[in-house]
Design a protein that fits this description.
Radius of gyration: 19 Å
Strand order of the largest sheet: 6-5-4-3-2-1-7
Distance between the termini: 25 Å
Number of helices: 12
CATH class: Alpha Beta
CATH architecture: Alpha-Beta Barrel
Structural class: alpha/beta
Helix content: 25-40%
Number of strands: 9
Number of domains: 1
Order of helices and strands: HEHEHEEHHEHHEHHHEHEEH
Length: 346
Protein backbone atom coordinates (compact mmCIF):
# COMPACT_ATOMS: atom_id res chain seq x y z
CA UNK A 1 0.00 0.00 0.00
CA UNK A 2 1.22 3.49 -0.79
CA UNK A 3 1.68 5.54 2.41
CA UNK A 4 -0.41 8.33 0.85
CA UNK A 5 -3.37 5.95 0.77
CA UNK A 6 -3.16 5.05 4.44
CA UNK A 7 -5.90 7.51 5.47
CA UNK A 8 -8.20 6.14 2.78
CA UNK A 9 -7.58 2.63 4.09
CA UNK A 10 -8.25 3.80 7.62
CA UNK A 11 -11.65 5.09 6.52
CA UNK A 12 -12.41 1.71 4.94
CA UNK A 13 -11.56 -0.03 8.22
CA UNK A 14 -13.92 2.21 10.18
CA UNK A 15 -16.70 1.18 7.82
CA UNK A 16 -15.94 -2.48 8.38
CA UNK A 17 -14.13 -3.00 5.09
CA UNK A 18 -10.86 -4.78 4.31
CA UNK A 19 -8.64 -2.24 2.49
CA UNK A 20 -6.22 -4.73 0.89
CA UNK A 21 -7.29 -7.60 -1.36
CA UNK A 22 -5.04 -10.24 -2.94
CA UNK A 23 -6.27 -12.82 -5.44
CA UNK A 24 -4.39 -15.79 -6.88
CA UNK A 25 -6.23 -15.55 -10.19
CA UNK A 26 -4.82 -18.77 -11.66
CA UNK A 27 -3.12 -21.95 -10.55
CA UNK A 28 -1.08 -22.12 -13.77
CA UNK A 29 2.58 -21.13 -13.98
CA UNK A 30 5.31 -22.14 -16.46
CA UNK A 31 8.00 -21.69 -13.79
CA UNK A 32 9.14 -24.05 -11.03
CA UNK A 33 10.88 -21.69 -8.64
CA UNK A 34 12.40 -23.24 -5.50
CA UNK A 35 10.78 -22.01 -2.33
CA UNK A 36 7.57 -20.79 -4.01
CA UNK A 37 5.08 -20.55 -1.15
CA UNK A 38 2.01 -20.64 -3.45
CA UNK A 39 2.71 -24.25 -4.45
CA UNK A 40 3.80 -25.42 -1.00
CA UNK A 41 2.03 -28.33 0.65
CA UNK A 42 0.93 -26.11 3.55
CA UNK A 43 -0.08 -22.98 1.62
CA UNK A 44 -3.79 -23.75 1.90
CA UNK A 45 -5.68 -25.32 4.79
CA UNK A 46 -6.82 -28.96 5.12
CA UNK A 47 -4.13 -30.33 2.83
CA UNK A 48 -5.55 -28.61 -0.25
CA UNK A 49 -2.95 -27.61 -2.85
CA UNK A 50 -3.14 -24.80 -5.38
CA UNK A 51 -2.58 -27.20 -8.28
CA UNK A 52 -5.59 -29.26 -7.20
CA UNK A 53 -8.08 -26.38 -7.42
CA UNK A 54 -10.39 -25.69 -10.30
CA UNK A 55 -9.71 -22.18 -11.55
CA UNK A 56 -11.61 -20.10 -14.09
CA UNK A 57 -11.02 -18.44 -17.43
CA UNK A 58 -12.73 -16.00 -19.78
CA UNK A 59 -15.99 -14.36 -18.71
CA UNK A 60 -16.12 -16.41 -15.52
CA UNK A 61 -12.70 -15.20 -14.37
CA UNK A 62 -13.50 -11.56 -15.14
CA UNK A 63 -16.79 -11.85 -13.25
CA UNK A 64 -15.11 -13.53 -10.26
CA UNK A 65 -12.46 -10.81 -9.92
CA UNK A 66 -15.02 -8.01 -10.11
CA UNK A 67 -17.33 -9.84 -7.70
CA UNK A 68 -14.66 -9.98 -4.97
CA UNK A 69 -13.76 -6.34 -5.61
CA UNK A 70 -17.43 -5.34 -5.30
CA UNK A 71 -17.79 -7.33 -2.08
CA UNK A 72 -14.70 -5.95 -0.36
CA UNK A 73 -14.43 -2.48 -1.95
CA UNK A 74 -10.65 -2.39 -1.31
CA UNK A 75 -8.20 0.46 -1.71
CA UNK A 76 -5.71 -1.85 -3.42
CA UNK A 77 -5.98 -5.16 -5.27
CA UNK A 78 -3.03 -7.47 -5.95
CA UNK A 79 -3.53 -9.97 -8.77
CA UNK A 80 -1.07 -12.81 -8.37
CA UNK A 81 -0.79 -16.52 -9.12
CA UNK A 82 0.46 -18.84 -10.25
CA UNK A 83 1.56 -16.61 -13.08
CA UNK A 84 -1.20 -14.00 -13.59
CA UNK A 85 -0.02 -13.24 -17.13
CA UNK A 86 -1.30 -16.69 -18.08
CA UNK A 87 -4.65 -14.87 -18.01
CA UNK A 88 -3.50 -11.75 -19.89
CA UNK A 89 -6.62 -11.68 -22.07
CA UNK A 90 -8.85 -11.48 -19.01
CA UNK A 91 -6.55 -8.94 -17.35
CA UNK A 92 -6.84 -6.73 -20.43
CA UNK A 93 -10.57 -6.55 -19.70
CA UNK A 94 -10.33 -6.15 -15.92
CA UNK A 95 -7.58 -3.54 -15.57
CA UNK A 96 -9.38 -0.67 -17.36
CA UNK A 97 -12.45 -1.24 -15.16
CA UNK A 98 -10.47 -1.18 -11.92
CA UNK A 99 -8.42 1.82 -13.03
CA UNK A 100 -11.57 3.73 -13.95
CA UNK A 101 -12.91 3.02 -10.47
CA UNK A 102 -9.75 4.48 -8.93
CA UNK A 103 -8.69 1.18 -7.35
CA UNK A 104 -4.92 0.72 -7.16
CA UNK A 105 -4.18 -2.59 -8.87
CA UNK A 106 -0.88 -4.42 -8.80
CA UNK A 107 0.03 -7.39 -10.98
CA UNK A 108 2.91 -9.47 -9.63
CA UNK A 109 4.53 -11.33 -12.52
CA UNK A 110 7.73 -13.03 -13.62
CA UNK A 111 7.46 -11.23 -17.00
CA UNK A 112 7.77 -14.59 -18.71
CA UNK A 113 4.99 -13.33 -21.01
CA UNK A 114 5.18 -9.89 -22.72
CA UNK A 115 3.58 -7.05 -20.76
CA UNK A 116 1.38 -4.75 -22.88
CA UNK A 117 2.94 -1.26 -22.57
CA UNK A 118 -0.52 0.35 -22.49
CA UNK A 119 -1.23 -1.36 -19.16
CA UNK A 120 1.62 0.53 -17.53
CA UNK A 121 0.15 3.83 -18.69
CA UNK A 122 -3.13 3.29 -16.82
CA UNK A 123 -3.19 5.70 -13.85
CA UNK A 124 -3.95 3.15 -11.10
CA UNK A 125 -2.08 0.10 -12.39
CA UNK A 126 1.34 -1.11 -11.20
CA UNK A 127 3.25 -4.01 -12.73
CA UNK A 128 5.69 -5.61 -10.30
CA UNK A 129 8.24 -7.92 -11.91
CA UNK A 130 9.93 -10.45 -9.64
CA UNK A 131 13.69 -10.54 -10.25
CA UNK A 132 15.38 -12.67 -7.63
CA UNK A 133 19.03 -11.73 -7.76
CA UNK A 134 21.60 -11.08 -10.45
CA UNK A 135 21.30 -12.92 -13.76
CA UNK A 136 23.71 -15.70 -12.72
CA UNK A 137 21.36 -16.66 -9.89
CA UNK A 138 17.97 -15.52 -11.15
CA UNK A 139 18.23 -17.31 -14.50
CA UNK A 140 18.74 -20.64 -12.75
CA UNK A 141 16.03 -20.04 -10.17
CA UNK A 142 13.35 -18.62 -12.47
CA UNK A 143 14.00 -20.22 -15.86
CA UNK A 144 12.38 -19.64 -18.41
CA UNK A 145 11.83 -16.09 -17.06
CA UNK A 146 15.49 -15.20 -17.59
CA UNK A 147 17.00 -11.70 -17.61
CA UNK A 148 17.09 -11.79 -21.41
CA UNK A 149 13.41 -12.63 -21.58
CA UNK A 150 12.41 -10.09 -18.94
CA UNK A 151 14.21 -7.26 -20.69
CA UNK A 152 12.52 -8.21 -23.94
CA UNK A 153 9.06 -8.47 -22.35
CA UNK A 154 9.17 -5.15 -20.45
CA UNK A 155 10.27 -3.11 -23.48
CA UNK A 156 8.51 0.28 -23.64
CA UNK A 157 6.87 -0.40 -20.25
CA UNK A 158 7.15 1.28 -16.87
CA UNK A 159 7.47 -1.39 -14.19
CA UNK A 160 8.56 -1.89 -10.60
CA UNK A 161 11.19 -4.52 -9.84
CA UNK A 162 10.61 -6.73 -6.80
CA UNK A 163 13.56 -8.58 -5.32
CA UNK A 164 13.38 -11.30 -2.66
CA UNK A 165 16.74 -11.32 -0.89
CA UNK A 166 18.02 -14.76 0.17
CA UNK A 167 21.02 -15.60 2.30
CA UNK A 168 23.22 -16.54 -0.67
CA UNK A 169 22.98 -12.92 -1.82
CA UNK A 170 24.07 -11.60 1.57
CA UNK A 171 27.12 -13.87 1.60
CA UNK A 172 28.57 -12.20 -1.51
CA UNK A 173 30.23 -8.79 -0.91
CA UNK A 174 28.88 -6.04 -3.14
CA UNK A 175 25.95 -8.14 -4.35
CA UNK A 176 23.26 -5.74 -3.11
CA UNK A 177 24.75 -2.71 -4.81
CA UNK A 178 25.44 -4.53 -8.07
CA UNK A 179 21.80 -5.59 -8.27
CA UNK A 180 20.36 -2.20 -7.35
CA UNK A 181 22.73 -0.35 -9.70
CA UNK A 182 21.73 -2.54 -12.67
CA UNK A 183 17.99 -2.02 -12.27
CA UNK A 184 18.28 1.62 -11.18
CA UNK A 185 19.87 2.34 -14.56
CA UNK A 186 17.17 0.62 -16.60
CA UNK A 187 14.77 3.15 -18.23
CA UNK A 188 11.80 0.79 -17.84
CA UNK A 189 12.14 0.69 -14.05
CA UNK A 190 10.13 3.11 -11.95
CA UNK A 191 10.90 1.74 -8.48
CA UNK A 192 12.79 -1.15 -6.89
CA UNK A 193 11.14 -2.98 -4.00
CA UNK A 194 12.80 -5.45 -1.67
CA UNK A 195 11.61 -8.37 0.44
CA UNK A 196 13.44 -11.00 2.47
CA UNK A 197 12.85 -14.73 2.13
CA UNK A 198 10.14 -15.73 4.60
CA UNK A 199 10.18 -19.38 5.75
CA UNK A 200 7.45 -21.52 7.22
CA UNK A 201 7.85 -22.41 10.88
CA UNK A 202 10.41 -25.16 11.29
CA UNK A 203 11.66 -24.85 7.70
CA UNK A 204 15.35 -25.51 7.09
CA UNK A 205 16.69 -23.82 3.96
CA UNK A 206 19.98 -22.20 2.86
CA UNK A 207 17.89 -19.22 1.67
CA UNK A 208 16.90 -18.17 5.21
CA UNK A 209 18.80 -15.14 6.50
CA UNK A 210 20.26 -15.54 9.99
CA UNK A 211 19.63 -12.60 12.28
CA UNK A 212 23.13 -11.19 11.76
CA UNK A 213 22.55 -10.97 8.01
CA UNK A 214 19.09 -9.44 8.47
CA UNK A 215 20.72 -6.72 10.56
CA UNK A 216 23.46 -6.31 7.96
CA UNK A 217 20.81 -5.90 5.26
CA UNK A 218 18.98 -3.29 7.32
CA UNK A 219 22.25 -1.38 7.73
CA UNK A 220 23.17 -1.52 4.03
CA UNK A 221 19.81 -0.34 2.68
CA UNK A 222 19.87 3.36 3.78
CA UNK A 223 23.10 4.30 1.95
CA UNK A 224 21.93 2.39 -1.13
CA UNK A 225 18.61 4.27 -1.07
CA UNK A 226 20.47 7.58 -0.98
CA UNK A 227 22.77 6.58 -3.85
CA UNK A 228 20.12 4.93 -6.03
CA UNK A 229 16.87 6.92 -5.98
CA UNK A 230 14.72 4.15 -7.49
CA UNK A 231 15.25 1.92 -4.43
CA UNK A 232 12.02 2.40 -2.48
CA UNK A 233 12.96 1.07 0.95
CA UNK A 234 12.78 3.83 3.60
CA UNK A 235 15.05 3.56 6.64
CA UNK A 236 12.17 2.60 8.95
CA UNK A 237 11.10 -0.18 6.64
CA UNK A 238 14.68 -1.47 6.50
CA UNK A 239 14.72 -1.65 10.31
CA UNK A 240 11.48 -3.64 10.20
CA UNK A 241 13.29 -6.37 8.25
CA UNK A 242 15.56 -6.82 11.26
CA UNK A 243 12.67 -6.71 13.78
CA UNK A 244 9.45 -7.90 12.08
CA UNK A 245 6.02 -8.29 13.75
CA UNK A 246 5.95 -11.17 16.21
CA UNK A 247 2.72 -12.83 15.03
CA UNK A 248 -0.17 -12.45 12.57
CA UNK A 249 -2.11 -10.63 15.30
CA UNK A 250 0.72 -8.10 15.56
CA UNK A 251 1.04 -7.70 11.77
CA UNK A 252 -0.96 -4.77 10.39
CA UNK A 253 -0.69 -6.17 6.86
CA UNK A 254 -2.16 -9.52 7.91
CA UNK A 255 -5.00 -7.82 9.79
CA UNK A 256 -5.80 -5.39 6.96
CA UNK A 257 -5.86 -7.86 4.08
CA UNK A 258 -8.05 -10.57 2.60
CA UNK A 259 -6.38 -13.16 0.40
CA UNK A 260 -8.19 -15.52 -1.96
CA UNK A 261 -6.86 -18.42 -3.94
CA UNK A 262 -7.77 -19.53 -7.46
CA UNK A 263 -11.20 -20.99 -6.69
CA UNK A 264 -12.31 -17.51 -5.52
CA UNK A 265 -13.80 -19.04 -2.39
CA UNK A 266 -10.92 -20.32 -0.26
CA UNK A 267 -9.12 -17.66 1.77
CA UNK A 268 -5.38 -17.90 2.33
CA UNK A 269 -4.61 -17.50 6.03
CA UNK A 270 -3.11 -15.90 8.04
CA UNK A 271 -1.55 -13.80 5.25
CA UNK A 272 -0.47 -14.18 1.63
CA UNK A 273 2.08 -16.87 2.60
CA UNK A 274 -0.55 -19.19 4.00
CA UNK A 275 0.35 -22.22 6.09
CA UNK A 276 2.28 -21.42 9.26
CA UNK A 277 4.74 -18.62 8.39
CA UNK A 278 7.57 -17.97 10.81
CA UNK A 279 6.71 -14.37 11.71
CA UNK A 280 9.97 -13.97 13.62
CA UNK A 281 11.71 -14.25 10.23
CA UNK A 282 9.13 -12.44 8.10
CA UNK A 283 10.55 -10.45 5.21
CA UNK A 284 7.35 -9.41 3.43
CA UNK A 285 7.78 -5.89 2.02
CA UNK A 286 4.15 -4.95 2.73
CA UNK A 287 4.36 -6.24 6.30
CA UNK A 288 7.62 -4.34 6.87
CA UNK A 289 6.23 -1.12 5.38
CA UNK A 290 3.04 -1.19 7.47
CA UNK A 291 4.97 -2.25 10.58
CA UNK A 292 7.14 0.82 10.11
CA UNK A 293 4.13 3.11 9.52
CA UNK A 294 2.34 1.53 12.48
CA UNK A 295 5.17 2.50 14.81
CA UNK A 296 4.97 6.18 13.88
CA UNK A 297 4.02 8.48 16.77
CA UNK A 298 0.75 10.40 16.55
CA UNK A 299 0.73 12.15 19.90
CA UNK A 300 2.74 11.28 22.99
CA UNK A 301 2.84 7.48 23.35
CA UNK A 302 -0.02 7.07 20.84
CA UNK A 303 1.12 5.31 17.66
CA UNK A 304 -0.55 4.72 14.31
CA UNK A 305 -0.94 1.00 15.11
CA UNK A 306 -3.03 1.89 18.18
CA UNK A 307 -5.41 3.90 15.98
CA UNK A 308 -5.58 1.06 13.47
CA UNK A 309 -6.44 -1.50 16.14
CA UNK A 310 -9.10 0.80 17.57
CA UNK A 311 -10.50 1.28 14.09
CA UNK A 312 -10.66 -2.48 13.60
CA UNK A 313 -12.77 -2.72 16.75
CA UNK A 314 -15.10 -0.10 15.30
CA UNK A 315 -15.17 -1.98 12.00
CA UNK A 316 -16.06 -5.22 13.79
CA UNK A 317 -18.94 -3.41 15.53
CA UNK A 318 -20.15 -2.06 12.18
CA UNK A 319 -20.04 -5.58 10.76
CA UNK A 320 -22.11 -6.86 13.67
CA UNK A 321 -24.94 -4.70 12.32
CA UNK A 322 -24.41 -5.94 8.78
CA UNK A 323 -25.08 -9.69 8.70
CA UNK A 324 -23.93 -9.97 5.08
CA UNK A 325 -20.48 -8.88 6.24
CA UNK A 326 -20.25 -11.44 9.05
CA UNK A 327 -17.10 -13.52 8.75
CA UNK A 328 -15.74 -11.40 5.92
CA UNK A 329 -12.98 -9.96 8.08
CA UNK A 330 -10.90 -11.37 10.91
CA UNK A 331 -11.86 -8.40 13.09
CA UNK A 332 -15.20 -9.93 14.05
CA UNK A 333 -13.49 -13.04 15.39
CA UNK A 334 -12.11 -13.32 18.92
CA UNK A 335 -8.57 -11.98 18.98
CA UNK A 336 -5.96 -14.49 20.03
CA UNK A 337 -3.36 -13.25 22.51
CA UNK A 338 -0.11 -12.13 20.92
CA UNK A 339 2.36 -14.99 21.18
CA UNK A 340 5.39 -16.17 19.28
CA UNK A 341 4.13 -19.75 18.89
CA UNK A 342 0.86 -18.76 17.21
CA UNK A 343 0.12 -21.20 14.40
CA UNK A 344 -3.07 -20.00 12.74
CA UNK A 345 -5.83 -17.50 13.16
CA UNK A 346 -8.93 -19.63 13.57
Amino acid sequence: MRPSNFLTAWGKILRGRIPLLSIEITRECPLSCPGCYAYGDSHLADGTKLVDLTDSKGDELVANILRLVDEHQPVQVSLVGGEPMMRHRELARVLPVLSERGIYTMIVTSAVIPIPPEWTRMPFVTIAVSVDGLAKDHDIRRKPATYERILKNIKDCKINVHWTVVNQHMEQPGYLEEYVAFWNNRPEVHKIWMSVYTPQRGEVSPEILPQANRESLAAQIPPLSKKYPKLLVPDGMAKAFAAPPTSPEDCIFSRMSANYTADFKTQVEPCVFGGDPDCSQCGCSMSAALHWIGGAKVAGPLQVKHLVRGSMAVGAFVNSWAPWQKGRTRWDKPAAPTRTDLVQIK
